Amino acid sequence: MTDDREDILRRDGLTIGIAGMSLLNGMHFSAYFDPVFILMKQFAPGFFISSPLLIFYFTSLFISALTLAIGGIPAAIYERGKNLETSTATSMWIWLGGIMLLTIPTLLQMTARPA
What per-residue string of b and e applies to 82-91 under the rule 16 or more CB within 10 Å gives b? Predict the structure, then answer.
């Protein structure tokens, strides 16, 4: 029973890391923000979004969600290959690694900005 709790705690910590890294990638200083913002400005009127502030927020949310989805592809392939029914700590580490690879340009741009 303690092994099960330990595994759940490990997966919870990894889930927080996954969410945090994907949210970091969606911030306004992200390397992906400006190109996606330009595209969102074109698509926003079709969804009745006219406020520039809302477009700004939806761009951040869109990049975060896309990072979460794309970063999870290698973990999903791993789980499918192993015929797993639930996520393990290994698949969560793979997911975090995929998100970290996607977040590298943002981290580099974040550290290159003057203080």
Answer: eeeeebbeeb
Rounded Cα distance, 98 and 94, in Å: 6
Domain extent listing, the chain: 2-112
Work out the end-to-end distance of the chain between its first and last CA atoms, rounded to an integer number of angstroms. Answer: 49
Q: For residue 76, name the pLDDT band (cuts at 50, 70, 90).
A: very high
Q: What is the mean pLDDT of the chain?
A: 90
Closest CA to 102 of 38, 39, 31, 11: 31
Cα distance between residue 25 and residue 109, in whole Å: 11
Is the predicted pLDDT of residue 50 greater than 90, yes or no? no
What is the DSSP track for 45-86? GGGT---HHHHHHHHHHHHHHHHHHHHTHHHHHHHHHTT-SS
